[in-house]
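Final report, closing paragraph on structural work. Over the funding period we assembled a curated collection of sequence-structure pairs, and we close with a single example.
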Amino acid sequence: MIVPPRLNAPIVLVHGLSGFSRLMPRRRAVADYFPGIQAFLEASGNRILCPRVTPTASVSTRALELRTILLRELGSQPFHMIGHSQGGLDARYMISRLGMENQVISLTTVGTPHRGTALADWGIACWSRYVCPVLRWAGIPDRAFFELTTGSCREFNESTPDVPGVRYYSVAGICEADWLNAGWRMTSRIVERVEGANDGVVSVASATWGERTDIWAGDHLNLVNWPNRRMKRAGEPSDRTGDYGRILAQLARVSRPE
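Its predicted structure, as stored:
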């Protein structure tokens, strides 16, 4: 097992759509969004933050919430960011459009649909007329679902350019059909027909961003260390802690932007 280095700046883990920092029913922690990752990285002396933002709000709303939390917790201190799925878009927006570019050293996106996902296109076309009124009646924001479509992300990329001085990296996932349950196989086929290889939700083509992209074998949630028992039975390692250690090894060579 790789031992992650201790970085000289905090690391912020940003959750994706419908995510959370930690589930604590009756004040007892039962699940982390990044299970095992925070403890693994903290064991080397790293300071890890896992902010919680509104699960299904728009990218701009979540980015503003993220900025507010980080300014409160870190002040003017520089930091690294690792964002999963929509969390990577939230981080990009915060850096590019909310004046945080001088504090962010690097952003590593994991399974982020930078160019949208055909799954969101399909979901909006087939289900939005039924699901969205229910969400709105319940007071649950629904904007995020629309903003993950390919058209919306095309507009997002035009208005949210990368910032010189911030280092951008990415991770994409490829999951074999045999490693997916019936529901995930269906979503994977929807994405594959339009975009090719994917993690069940986001294609490699959409997740590729920045100066370097690593490809991991795993489904969309396994990329943040949720277990995939089918992978394990097939003899494929599904524990991601070592992969996050390698991310930190890469970040250890990155200097603060001037």
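The CA atoms of residues 16 and 72 lie 21 Å apart. The first strand starts at residue 11 and ends at 14. We thank the funder for supporting this effort.
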